[in-house]
Write a structure and sequence with these properties.
By secondary structure, this protein is an all-beta fold. Among the domains are: about 1-140, Beta Barrel (Lipocalin); about 280-415, YVTN repeat-like/Quinoprotein amine dehydrogenase (Methylamine Dehydrogenase, Chain H). It has strands at about 45-50, 50-55, 60-65, 70-75, 80, 90-95, 100-105, 110-115, 115-120, 125-130, 135-140, 145-150, 155-160, 165-170, 175-180, 190-195, 200, 210-215, 220-225, 240-245, 250-255, 265, 275, 285, 290-295, 300-305, 310-315, 320-330, 330-335, 345-350, 355-360, 375-380, 385-390, 395-400, 405-415. The strands form 9 sheets. It has a 4-stranded antiparallel β-sheet, with no helix packed on it. The chain has a 4-stranded antiparallel β-sheet with strand order 8-9-10-11, with no helix packed on it. It has a 4-stranded antiparallel β-sheet with strand order 12-13-14-15, with no helix packed on it. The relative contact order is 0.11. The model is unreliable at about 1-40 (pLDDT under 50).
């Protein structure tokens, strides 16, 4: 499953302590005397477990907290951290590292952020901490909140009754709710903000699957159902949502040894079916303008296909079952990983021939495990290839030269999951 913007909200699902490895020390931030909003930082910063990372300088800019936070969320220049010991919610500037305010909160909830402040969900109660002063304002929804998603200047709340309620991003006032026509699939990536300003969800793959997108009005933008299984599919045919957003939904077979291989790609703009083929596809490949350019397969062999299923090239490289890909400056960068095991690799291919141009030196923590999950993505951040992984045992951000694959920056921490 592809990871979406580096400034997206960060959510934890478990309540345990993990070790952390700080790369660059930084003095304790001082209080900010002027919390007035600044211009957006042009995606120059991202937040990773209490550290403000400067993507252009490729360095840790500030250590906002020496402790691994229980929850964290970021939007534009704002970072919100929940301390796992004291249950204090703190607001920082990613640029200056300055502390804006600290407020008491509670543990084990969902945290999100908009340009208007932090939003904190515990059961059916959603609490808004305004950006300027952090003075909490709570309200009770009709059902428990399971996910929070920034949606333009507002906040989309996925409720346990399968409705998306939209709150004002500054006042937290409700603008109404829209019922999804199905139960959303998944627990870590249930809802996504599309590139078209909508909140989108997908159902679990069965005989068919459904996709729906909701505007910030709120209103149902569109909803469509797609056939998936065939009566002739042999036993052992399994399907997964392999990619959700920001432009496409990819549902494909997974671990289909002896089963049918099939993939369907849906456009989140209007629900158009962009591709349907009898192949197991790990990830989509988009042009730099966002149009669907190809489909990347890792099983049973590594191949790049056209959206119509024509094989453009085949590689002898042995990759894991899951992948994320980005086409940038004439190179196809592919992050390969196993969805239920630790680790990742990064390779750069010639998009025309499949020749390997580089192999990234990915640095990861040595982790033994039994039950595990792994979600890794590659994207472009400040002119570099950004490899970001969220695993059961570690989180990381690594930046690479897009031409040579040379690693330029690494930040590894234990996971909050």
């Amino acid at each position: 499953m592809r990871w979406l913007p580096l400034l997206a909200i960060t959510m934890g699902l478990a309540c345990r302590r993990n070790d952390t490895r700080a790369i660059v020390p930084d003095p304790t931030p001082k209080a900010d005397a002027d919390p007035a909003p600044k211009d957006p930082p042009r995606e120059e910063f991202t937040l990773l477990h209490g550290k403000s990372i400067d993507l252009r300088l490729r360095a840790v800019r500030h250590v906002l907290t020496p402790e691994l936070p229980r929850r964290e969320a970021a939007r534009a220049d704002d970072a919100y951290l929940l301390d796992r010991k004291t249950a204090v919610l703190q607001a920082f500037s990613l640029d200056s590292g300055a502390l804006r305010w600290s407020k008491p909160a509670t543990l084990c909830s969902v945290l999100g952020a908009t340009s208007g402040g932090a939003f904190y969900a515990q059961g059916s109660t959603v609490t808004h901490y305004p950006r300027a002063d952090g003075v909490a304002r709570a309200q009770t929804l009709a059902a428990d909140a399971s996910a929070l998603l920034p949606l333009r200047a507002r906040l989309a709340v996925l409720r346990s009754d399968h409705q998306i309620e939209v709150l004002d991003g500054t006042t937290a006032a409700s603008h109404g709710a829209v019922a999804l026509p199905f139960a959303p699939y998944g627990h870590r990536s249930t809802l996504v903000e599309s590139a078209y300003g909508t909140a989108c969800a997908v159902s679990a793959p069965g005989p068919d699957f459904e996709v729906a997108c909701v505007t910030d009005a709120p209103a149902l933008a569109w909803h469509k159902k797609y056939p998936l299984r065939k009566p002739t599919d042999p036993p052992g045919t399994y399907f997964q949502v392999r990619e959700l957003g920001p432009r496409f939904v990819l549902v494909s077979s997974w671990f289909s040894s002896g089963g049918a291989r099939r993939a369907v790609v849906v456009d989140l703009k209007d629900g158009a079916e962009l591709a349907r083929l009898e192949e197991e596809i790990a990830t989509t490949v988009a042009t730099e303008t966002g149009a669907l350019d190809g489909l990347f397969a890792t099983q049973p062999t590594t191949r790049l296909l056209s959206p119509t299923g024509v094989v453009r090239w085949t590689s002898t490289e042995k990759l894991n079952d899951s992948a994320s890909a980005v086409l940038f400056d004439g190179t196809l960068a592919v992050a390969s990983f196993h969805a239920i095991a630790t680790g990742a690799s990064l390779l750069g291919f010639d998009p025309a021939t499949g020749a390997v141009r580089f192999r990234g030196d990915v640095e990861l923590l040595p982790i033994g495990h039994s039950k595990y999950f792994n979600a890794t993505s590659v994207s472009i951040a400040a002119g570099a290839l950004a490899l970001r992984g969220r695993e059961a045992g570690q989180d990381y951000l690594e930046l690479f030269d897009p031409k040579t694959g040379k690693r330029l920056f690494t930040e590894l921490t234990g996971s909050v999951f």
